[in-house]
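Re-run with default settings, no changes from the original entry. Doing this only to confirm the output is reproducible before filing.
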Amino acid sequence: MSEVRTTTAPTAVSSLGAREAFAPSFDESSLVRPAVASAENLVITASDGAELVHGVSVAVRPGEAVGIVGESGSGKTLTCRALLGILPAGLAVTGGAVTIDGQDVTHASEKQWRRLRGTHVAAVFQDPASYLHPAIPVGAQLEETLRITARAPRRQTRERARELLDDLGIRRVDLVLRQRVAQLSGGMLQRVLIAMALAADPAVLIADEATTALDVTVQAELLELLGRLRVERDLALILVSHDLAVVAQVCERVQVFRDGRVIEAGATSRVLRAPGHPYTRELLSAHAAYGLERYLA
């Protein structure tokens, strides 16, 4: 198995005492910057008329990490798919607006979305192996992404692929580029997908349950990687998870979804220390055994 350079995951520790004062978890001046991706009062409806997402609003700005948490079926993934223009067949945006980099793309055509995906907004999902061809070396697939999405000249794609994987902390890059899906671990495959997502230097990266199927150590490494990339690239990051500890580790702001609505939102430190909604309190209680307080410095 190929090697990955590892670093220590954040382990900030603090008490959750009710009277403890705490500082804002992010610089609110960043909110002055325009959002690079947003959904405003988003409504998503099925072909049978059933409304699945009810007036949800989400926005993310350069260099900011926003967490979206909620149980399965809460609408978090559908909201992100609307931001990518990849809603499942039979579903449509029937209310509100979707904006990418200042452009209203609520009713954009597939041709218009193809110009935006990868170059303005990109995503990684839970099962990386299902997004890669099993018979083709991952290096060839990454190079193809560089040619098609980033429009890199063919003679430059191999070196650019090496640079991307090296930046993601992968050792023995040339070996990894020659390997196929079955020869790589889940964590390594996720790094390859992140490299593909970042190939054209998008402004927004959506990570939808991207670390869910990985073991705890690899998950911590990837979360730290995502945190570093968004700082270095001024990348707007939307992190979708059912795990509050994951969101607390990475995100300055969090939105809690339930039944197709945002039921609570705000600075991560405030929401997770002093939740205002009973459902958020239930989620916190369910996660207490996993040491969530370690990430609420």
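Confidence is low (pLDDT under 50) at residues 6-27. Strands lie at 37-46, 51-60, 65-69, 91-100, 103-104, 121-124, 204-208, 236-241, 253-258, 261-267.
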